[in-house]
Amino acid sequence: MEPIRKEEIDDQACGSLAPKSKPCPRPKPGEAAGGCSFDGAQITLLPIMDAAHLVHGPVACAGNSWESRGSLSSGPSLSQYGFATDLTNNDIIFGGERKLKDSIDYIAGRFAPPAIFVYATCVTALIGEDMDAVCKEASERLGIPVVPVNSPGFVGSKNLGNRLAGDALLQYVIGTGEPELEASMGVNLIGEYNIAGEMWDIEKLMNQAGITLLSRITGDARYKEITWAHRAKANMVVCSRALLGLAKQMESKYGIPYFEGSFYGAKETTYSLRQMAFLLNDREMERRVDRLTEREESRLSHDLRPYRKILKGKKAVLYTGGVKSWSVISALKELGIQVVGVGTNKSSDEDVQRIADRVSDDTEYIPEGGASRIIKTVRERKADIMIAGGRNMYVAMKEQIPFVDINQERHKAYAGYEGLLRLAKELVDSIANPIWKLASSPAPWDKEGSYDR
Amino acid sequence: MSNERIDIPDYSSLFAEERYIQQRENKKQFEAPCSDEAKAEALAYSKSAEYLEKNFERKAVVINPHKACQPLGAVMAALGFEKTLPFVHGSQGCNSYFRSHLSRHFKEPTPAVSSSMTEDAAVFGGMSNMIDGLQNAVALYKPEMVAVCTTCMAEVIGDDLSAFIGNARQKGAISEDFPVTFANTPSFIGSHITGYDSMIRNILAQLFERSGQAAAPGTGEEGEKLNVLLGFEPYTGNFAEIRKILNAFDTKYTILGDHSGNYDSPANGEYEYYYGGTKLADVPKAANALGSLVLQKYTLKKTQDYISGTWKQQVASLSTPLGVKATDKLIETISELTGLPVPESLKEERGRVVDAYADSHPYLHGKRVALAGDPDLLLGLIGFCLEVGIEPVHILCSNGDVEFDDKKWKAEVEELLASSPYGSEAKVYVGKDLWHLRSLLLNDPVDLVIGSSHVKFAAKDAEVPLVRVGFPIFDRHHMHRNPIIGYQGALNLLTLIVNIVLEQLDNNPSGLVDLVR
């Protein structure tokens, strides 16, 4: 693997170490914008399941969000607890550092976590809380890592928050521990959050190929394994835009090569596994991966046959962000589905380039958010199904458009070979469900007033 | 569908398969976990009386909060008015939380926009975000009114909303006469109910003032008699129920703040962005009504002050009318305010509910319950429990510290409890979180917990069934579409609770199952 040349490092606007050209796109005031940096930081770090995650701010930043993510845990569940310092009026005036210290002490004493992540919010950033100092002091006193995550909501988008969380990991966590076992062949997965258990499917595949998964950053992770992530032989960046910076910095700091990949669709999965084996530079492993991927692909292709028959030629509009905006296209193409519209407002230039490589020329790009814009495309292009996240789901229902949820609340794992099969079934079920026919046919006393679909 | 059925399990069953269990077991060597004994010991300690005491001494940290913040309530309030766009002034993530939160509860889209303030706004103030935001939002979503609420960020830097909106008009971002209401709703004070109250009050005040008329209670030319305010109402079905009751009286009325249109809109092929809501023109007329009926008196504190102060109206204040007695009170109040007799249909309905109570009471008598929720909802629930012979034991209200004139919520709850022998065991916990509730449930076990979806985890730890009532309910469908107020609501609540009790009986460890109960 040829290491990436120096000048390439800064060229990707959002995920990179030092964004020169342009920062993450700013949301336009007056639109229904997506999540904030605080939310993004939590998305990245909450899957560290055994750590405590303390929100330093008014109670509702945690109160509006705790326990509502689909990152699954195979063991500890401390990260599902909503810890908050609950700053109130007086704290805004006199400062909340005392409250923060007491909260950290309480959590350390009562829950004995291996580490505590402390999140800044708009309020603490604005009133100038010295969180870093409180965390440092507490860390020294308590003898456990207390990691400040400086990603208050107002600094920008969810993606920026992902990146800031990556910075916190690099600054405070990675490189502070050593693996107990010999891990000369380990790969880290960066940006895979084990939504609906996808990480477990991926882990299974890696096990079968004999590839050691060294650190999961951060799906179903334990704090300890992230401390030794710097001992990996390779990094795979799964959610490209958000944590690319982390992979790049690990490359320059520890010399770990990385690649960007995805597990959505058989082709992408095969590519990712092959790429891992290639970076590990192990001929035997490459042969094993070849055998595994061949076997899985042919089995999948057999299992998919009945679904392909139904899905062939169906048209979909895809509205999601980051890596999913292009990787899911590959998965859909393998199922015979044509993507006629794709949302790009959360995609970096590079993501858009990848989308362009995968779709046909007449695919419509939807550059801005908002349900009405997406719906318009669905209507104009006569799409059969909409694939997007939870906030757009209910609009699709109103418009009687079959819908599959692809974002963090989903309950089915779509990664890997088996995942594609699940996605196919979900799509078929969603399109075939009788309610769409019922919904789109007029009531008996209203025969002429037939709807579009 | 194809004939070849492949079984595709979702995650709850898929990862219970042996191969995944094995995979997790193998992984334990990397986790350096505590021993099973240590785990069991810690778990036992967390359930002990000693820890209960320690837990209640906890001052510093909130664990598993049971309240949302002011602007969330303000967004709901704004959606209660015709073609009104909620506009959240502050950083973007707050707005996306509110939209998710409300959508997950109602299973409906939530139209709301943000001024998306960032670092430069933190330094220079959010004026340009407000001006650009208003211009863009009005152009994009074509509302007839914009209701601006604030997040912590705007409040901490001290944005002057009145001046900003004035400047937006001056700069031509919005026209001079376009109605823009605002409310200051920092999250670090109060909760979602406080924010709901502020926004409703300000919308009423603004629409009234711009009409230029003077308040003249009882002079409504078009026969307006009564205004009804439901407050922070998580049940769209409750709006239909109160309408049914008022229609039975055959009186004219105005519901002030009716978000049931937006949160129970039909799927007819075209999403319209705004549905239903109180008509803007009806608000000034409402000032001429004889009186106002408030169904969440602790939530709507400022609004009541405004209606009685500025509109000089008689205000009848109730808490969420759950159960027969509270509904009786509601019916009496409506009758008094309008001077109309109680309609026969309601009398008959009452009789049917009492009959249903009689059918079910053997299974409910003496059941011990824990309750968690908003102040007015809890008052309603306590009343309901006491009248069917359920004994409230733990009553938890995270946001119950709101003072109400000279009377405090806690005092009223205790008075209500003292009125019945079934209330004698109850204790009220104000400002506590769900981690406190967990300790209570483990140390002083109950038969049922009544509360929102968030209570699920505490209930699960204590192995107590949860009856989902309140806000938010994320993990059950359509509960908000059925009313819980009025006689019909009493029947619905009764059905919900008694069937959970009967379900428990079927699952009893003795294995005895009766066919008839």
From TrEMBL, chain A:
Q: Which Pfam families match?
A: Oxidored_nitro (PF00148)
Q: Which Gene3D superfamilies match?
A: Nitrogenase MoFe cofactor biosynthesis protein NifE, C-terminal, Nitrogenase molybdenum iron protein domain
Query: Which biological pathway?
Result: Cofactor biosynthesis; Fe-Mo cofactor biosynthesis
What InterPro entries would the database entry show?
Nase/OxRdtase_comp1 (IPR000510), Nase_comp1_CS (IPR000318), NifE (IPR005973), NifE-like (IPR049939)
Keywords for the protein's UniProt record, in alphabetical order: Nitrogen fixation
The cross-references to PROSITE patterns, in alphabetical order and at most eight, read: NITROGENASE_1_1
Q: Where is this region: Disordered?
A: 1-31
Q: Which residues form the Nitrogenase/oxidoreductase component domain?
A: 36-431
Assigned protein family: Belongs to the NifD/NifK/NifE/NifN family.
Give a short account of what the protein does. Answer: This protein may play a role in the biosynthesis of the prosthetic group of nitrogenase (FeMo cofactor).
- What is the name of the protein in this document? Nitrogenase iron-molybdenum cofactor biosynthesis protein NifE
From TrEMBL, chain B:
**Name assigned to this protein:** Nitrogenase molybdenum-iron protein beta chain
Q: Which PROSITE patterns match?
A: NITROGENASE_1_1, NITROGENASE_1_2
Q: Taking every annotated instance into account, which residue ranges of this chain make up the domain Nitrogenase/oxidoreductase component?
A: 69-501
Family per similarity comment:
Belongs to the NifD/NifK/NifE/NifN family.
Per the entry, what this protein does is: This molybdenum-iron protein is part of the nitrogenase complex that catalyzes the key enzymatic reactions in nitrogen fixation.
Checking Pfam families in the record gives:
DUF3364, Oxidored_nitro
InterPro entries in the cross-refs? ChlB/BchB/BchZ (IPR050152), Nase/OxRdtase_comp1 (IPR000510), Nase_comp1_CS (IPR000318), Nase_Mo-Fe_CF_bsu (IPR005976), Nase_Mo-Fe_CF_bsu_N (IPR024564)
| NCBIfam families on file | nifK
Catalyses:
N2 + 8 reduced [2Fe-2S]-[ferredoxin] + 16 ATP + 16 H2O = H2 + 8 oxidized [2Fe-2S]-[ferredoxin] + 2 NH4(+) + 16 ADP + 16 phosphate + 6 H(+)
User: Which keywords belong to this entry?
Assistant: ATP-binding, Iron, Iron-sulfur, Metal-binding, Nitrogen fixation, Nucleotide-binding, Oxidoreductase
Under the subunit heading, UniProt states: Tetramer of two alpha and two beta chains. Forms complex with the iron protein (nitrogenase component 2).
List cofactor names only: [8Fe-7S] cluster
Co-factor note (free text):
Binds 1 [8Fe-7S] cluster per heterodimer.
Q: Name one GO molecular function term.
A: nitrogenase activity
Annotated EC: 1.18.6.1
What are the Nitrogenase molybdenum-iron protein beta chain N-terminal domain coordinates in residue numbering? Answer: 1-55
